[in-house]
Amino acid sequence: MTLKVHFKPTDIVRLADVKNASRQIRPYIHRTPVLTCESLNRMVGHNLFFKCENLQKTGAFKFRGAVNAVSQLNDAELENGVVTHSSGNHAAALAQAARIFGTKAHIVMPSSASSIKRKAVIEYGGNVIECQPNLDSRLEYAERVQAETGATMIPPFNDPRIIAGQGTAALEFLQQVPNLDLLIAPIGGGGLISGTCVTSTAISPRCKVIGAEPEGADDAFRSKEAREMLPQTNPQTIADGLLTSMGKLTWPYVRDLVRQVVTVSDEETVKAMRLFLERAKVLIEPSSAVALAAAFSPKLNSSGSDRNIGIILSGGNVDLDHLPW
Amino acid sequence: MTLKVHFKPTDIVRLADVKNASRQIRPYIHRTPVLTCESLNRMVGHNLFFKCENLQKTGAFKFRGAVNAVSQLNDAELENGVVTHSSGNHAAALAQAARIFGTKAHIVMPSSASSIKRKAVIEYGGNVIECQPNLDSRLEYAERVQAETGATMIPPFNDPRIIAGQGTAALEFLQQVPNLDLLIAPIGGGGLISGTCVTSTAISPRCKVIGAEPEGADDAFRSKEAREMLPQTNPQTIADGLLTSMGKLTWPYVRDLVRQVVTVSDEETVKAMRLFLERAKVLIEPSSAVALAAAFSPKLNSSGSDRNIGIILSGGNVDLDHLPW
User: Fold this and answer.
1) Which of A8, A64, A186, A306 could form an SS bridge with A181, CB 3.0 to 4.6 Å?
2) Do residue A196 and residue A112 come from a single domain?
3) Residue A104 and residue A192 in one domain
4) CB contact under 8 A, A320 and B282
5) What total number of domains does chain B contain?
């Protein structure tokens, strides 16, 4: 006779893990501020609250997960370094997290990655290894580095330590603004939205978690409609942090705990990014503007009683020589 | 026999006036936040504290003085409206202040004023009257409006109510960060720096007030060197808020209470503006970037013991279609 354990995929990360992560990373991260902007409130007809992870160290929420993962390595693992493949904010976050813990970060970056992103990784002390701009090449190079150095792989989102770390943003947010009716976060690989679901569902169950996606990279939206995980092929969007498909660990959160996925056009995203800079005077990257655009979207299912809308502004790393307007 | 009253020009506005202004304007203004940015601290080797008046209502500190002035008008004066001539932030600030107090603002703007600035004034309900782009035309039109409407003139800086209002920014700042060693503010007409001197000298006498000016509009610097008020002729700078000459009421503060005026090139200003957006993710206008550039300037007389430098970021109204890089 076997004992059946009823273990839902969404139980892989629990509130206790997020709280542990929060304690673990506290000495290293910023408790980012929550901004409000009256003129945006007037425009949208709700009270908007912005959790400014664009002001997080390394300019994105990614630093939370990276620090949480690296802080759990033992001495032998720290001796051998860490490795990841990323063209964006996870790369810079892991490089800086590794530096804090005195270890080496090997970052496999596609040759198509922007020179700004590459520069940031190098500035944080990361060892950049260039690969071809496709997933096969990225995985191949990362595995080769692992084999050669014994470095520990720290994936960008499909990892319980990463999800728990990203969930600390919503934990702080709901402490700073306890009475949110909606909480919007962008969906790329799903690390941020999954951590947000863990936290919000546990401590503020009546707050609805909304995912935001670009129309040109809408795997979460389509997957939720189909009730099965569909991959993102050939993504087309300026939101360069949201190109990737969800992972096996993050999809269940989107499927079961995200109330709605709102898709927005790149035009809406650019408009939101520019509006935020003009009115709130704060720079956000397109991947964050997707979440702001969702708050303005007629597609968003919000009722008259949904007055307080929280938005996680995921990052602020923008190439100022190539602003998208 | 006459009793001689020793009344220094710098006594025209006192700390009590600033404190009164602070009480008067409190319901209408933002208590703006103070930001810090570790990567800028590392670059400059000091602790920088940024008083974010770019996040003030109407996007600039000017709103403080305008509200303070308009709030002191009696019912008969409010009946007849207010008038000013300005191409910039004072125009928008006065329009919004007038709206709050239910009166009309007539704003004489040169035809050369940017369409963004004109749009802002109209959005705040101001009545824009176009004049030729020179001081004579501005004064002529403003006097004509005064004669026709009976409106009260609210000058942009050369007015005790305005100086007292602008001094409330430093009052908040020194409450938020009591141990500043240096306090840097830009000098245009001198309203902000004068109010800053009143406040800082009274409540934090060991804090040195530093003025920042563009090299191409350096009347305060030259005046201080010459010990007499010299006008600004033919100013050439991208810091469009700092083109004007000081007034008779503001010059004595610069002469007697400002420790040093640091001039910076437009190149340094643009670099500072861009750096702040890239690192702090916050948008400031060139006139504010002048003060940040002064903190980085080798001309700044700061000693090793000057560790905490406060900078008043005066505004954030920028035409995003014409960023200066």
Assistant:
1) A306
2) no
3) no
4) no
5) 2
Residues B194 and B284 in one domain: yes
Q: B220 is in which domain, residue-wise?
A: 9-60+160-322
Query: For residue A172, what is the domain's CATH number?
Result: 3.40.50.1100
Query: Would you state the pLDDT for residue B198?
Result: 98
DSSP-assigned letter for residue B165: H
**Statement to judge: residues A121 and A34 lie in one domain:** no
B214 and B181 within one domain? yes
Do A276 and A181 share a domain, yes or no?
yes
Contact criterion met (CB below 8 Å) for B196 and B170: yes
Instruction: Indicate yes or no: CB of A320 within 8 angstroms of CB of B283.
Output: no
Number of Cβ pairs < 8 A linking chain A and chain B: 39
- Taking the C-alpha atoms of residue A203 and residue A201, their distance in angstroms, rounded to an integer, is 6
pLDDT tens-place string over residues A126-174: 999 999 988 889 889 999 999 999 999 999 999 999 999 999 999 999 9
Average pLDDT over residues B249-256: 96
Question: Residue B2 domain-assigned?
Answer: no
DSSP lists the bridge partners of residue A127 as A106
**Catalytic site includes residue A62:** yes
Show which residues on chain B lie within 8 Å of chain A, measured between beta carbons. 33, 38, 54-55, 57, 59, 274, 277-278, 280-284, 316, 318, 320-321, 323, 325
Closest CA to A231 of A214, A244, A242: A244
| Residue A2 lies inside a defined structural domain of this protein | no
DSSP label at B292? H
Q: Tell me which chain A residues have a C-beta less than 8 angstroms from the C-beta of B273.
A: none
The answer to whether position B291 is within a domain reads: yes
Contacts of A282 in chain B (CB under 8 A): 281-283
A83-124: per-residue pLDDT in tens?
999 878 999 999 999 999 999 999 999 888 888 889 999 999
Q: Are A51 and A72 part of one and the same domain?
A: no
pLDDT tens digits, one per residue of B145-166: 999 999 999 999 999 999 999 9
Whether residue B177 contacts residue B34, with contact meaning beta carbons closer than 8 Å, is answered with yes
Q: Do B55 and A323 touch (CB under 8 A)?
A: no
Name residues whose C-beta falls within 8 Å of residue B165's C-beta, 6 or more positions apart in sequence.
B21, B25, B64, B65, B66, B67, B68, B69, B195
* Catalytic status, residue B305: no
ipTM of the complex: 0.92
Q: Looking at the predicted structure, is the pLDDT value of residue A292 above 60?
A: yes
